[in-house]
Fold this sequence. Notes:
Elements: E1 19-20, E2 38-41, E3 51-55, E4 61-63, E5 74-76, E6 79-80, H1 104-108, E7 109-113, H2 116-124, E8 134-136, H3 147-150, H4 153-162, E9 167-171, H5 180-187, E10 192-197, H6 203-209, H7 216-228, E11 233-240, H8 248-260, E12 266-270, H9 277-288, H10 293-299, H11 308-325
Parallel strand pairs: 3-7, 5-8, 8-9, 9-10, 10-11, 11-12
Antiparallel strand pairs: 1-4, 2-3, 4-5, 6-7
Helix pairs in contact: 2-4, 4-5, 8-11
Amino acid sequence: MRWDNLTSGTADGTADGTRPAAGPAAGPAAxxxxxxxxxxxxxxxxxRGITFHEVRARSILNRVPGASRMPFExxxxxxxxxxxxxxxxxxxxxxxxxxxxxxxxxxxxIVVKTNAPELLRRELASRRWTGAHVAMGTxxxxxxxxxxxxxxxxxxxxxxxxxxxxFSILTKGTLILRDLPxxxxxxxxxxxxxSVSVGFTDTALWRTVEPGTPSPGARxxxxxxxxxxxxxxxxxxxxxVPFLGDSPEQLRATVRAVAESGATSVTPLVLxxxxxxxxxxxxxxxxxxxxxxxRYARMYTGGSYAPTWYQRAIxxxxxxLATEFGIGPGGRGAAPRxxxxxxxxDPAPAGPAQLSLL
Length: 358
C-alpha cells in the first residue's frame, strides 16, 4: 500500500481531497508512514471480515480547496473507508490513493487515525487557527461501526467544546446518541448542527444499497431522541435514488416519516455517481436491477449528476411535501444550521475538492 506516497504536499493530500492545515505538522513529510501502521482484525460478529489499519496522522484539520462548492472551509475525518458499505458512496475512489480496493476493500479495509483527538487539540490551539466552522461526516461516516471500538469522536467533540468552536456532523450512524451529553455541552457554548442522512424509508432498498447502516427507522428514531434532548437535527434526504426510490408514494412516505421524527428540516439530494462510485454502483445495478442499467446510462450520460430538470422536480416535490407536513420555516423548525452540500446541476470542476458524503 502506498502509505508513504500520501504526503501533505501532494495534490490529493487526504482521503477526501482536502489539504492538511498549515502548522507544526505540515510540510513535505508523509501524513503517516508505513512504520506507523498497525493492522488489526477482531473476531467479533460486528467486525468480522473487517481489517483496521491504525495510523498516527500528522494532520487532522483539512482545508477545503477554494474551488470547491462546499459551504464549509474545514473538515475533520478520523476514518478512511467505511463499513456502511453504501454502494453509491463517492469516497470509494479515494481508497485507491493507498492502493486499496475501492469496492469490497473500501467496505472492509478501514484506516483509523488513532491520534485524531490529541492532534485536533493541538491544531485548535495554534495561533493560526481562527475558530472557523468544522464539518464532520462529509467524507466517510465518523459514526460508522469502527467508532464503537475506537471512540475517537468523544475526544474530538471535547476538543471543539473546550475551544467553543462551531461544528457540524452528518451521519447515518445511531451511535451518535452515545455522545448526546457531549453534544449538549458543546451546543451550550458554540453553534452545533446535526444532520442525519435518510434518503428513503423503503426497507428492501435499504438492505441492498446501504447494507452496513442502521435502518432508516432507527436513524429517524435517533433524530427524535436528539430533538427531544434540545439538539436541533435536520434530515438530509439523500440519496434520492432514480427509478428505485423516487416514486410519489415513496417520497411522501419518507417526508412523512421525517416529519414524525421531529426533524427541523429536510433537504433532498439526488444520487450522484462520481468516478469510482459509478463503476461500483453500476455493477450492483447490473446484478440487482439489470433492466435499469441502460436507463441510468442515459440519465447520467452528461456526467456525475442527474439532469437539472430531474433534480428540480424532486426538490419541488419534497418541498411541497415538507410544507404539507409542517417541516421547515413554515412549520415546526427553523432552517438547519448544519452545512449541507449544494445540488450542482453540472459536473463538478476537475481537481481536488472536499466532496459531500452523498
